[in-house]
Amino acid sequence: MPVGEYNFGFIGGGAIAEALVAGVTGAGLVAPEKIRVSDVNAERREYLREKLGVAVTPDNTALVAGADIVVLAVKPFVIGEVLGEIGGQLSEKQIVISVAAGVPTAYIEKFFSVNVPVVRAMPNTPALVGAAATAVCRGRWATGEHLELARAVFGVVGRAIPVREDLMDAVTGLSGSGPAYMYVIAEALADAGVRVGLPRDVSLTLAAQTMLGAARMILETERHPGVLKDMVTTPGGTTIEGLFALEEGGLRAVLGRAVENACRRSRQLSGDNN
């Protein structure tokens, strides 16, 4: 069945939910009247209703009753409470998509009395500008068709890539936390530009656009980053001097430790939800 024929229910109306709803409606994938959002905050509900044209409710159980696809867009520390509230109402004909970080599909499935298909997704915050890197995996009762459905939804806010669930903590350490790493690098580049004489606004714009352009070169040319790096690097030139400084400073090792540390912490949090 085409994505647009499903009725969607979003539990939680935060930034990621807003980005997904705006993405699927803006792309014409799902009509606003096919979407309902529940949120505990009355002001937030009114904001979503006015901005996105979707129905809103404070009642999770009412939302689930009318949804073919239930998107769990809540914080990990409240997901147990939410699942305890709605778990007994879900049927095998419905689909659950969870974006709760660090919450395994097996934990979610424990709350259901029937075999409800569950898909887990790990988007990142650039979903807000349609440039997310999202990993998706399926639970015990979900099929490849359910996974492709989730990919279609998350594909409107960036790229959606299927992975095994045992890799989701690694995904969290790399792309989930990755935007923060990139912000630090962008800030450092901008500071360096200021140090050598550039105005702050010019330096930050050049740094950010350079990162964007480099990312697009990797994705659109499908060439290895090392090949692209060598294309910019001439013998005895300026770039090799800069690259030598990065190697001296241990940039690769620092980024490696950042991903490993974040991955380790994600595993710890996942263990709390088993």
Automatic annotation (TrEMBL):
Gene3D superfamilies xref list: NAD(P)-binding Rossmann-like Domain, ProC C-terminal domain-like
Predominant subcellular localization, coarse grouping: cytoplasm
Binding site for NADP(+): 73-76
CC annotations in GO: cytoplasm
Residues covered by the Pyrroline-5-carboxylate reductase dimerisation domain: 165-269
Residues bound to NADPH: 60
Protein name per the record: Pyrroline-5-carboxylate reductase
Gene it is expressed from: proC
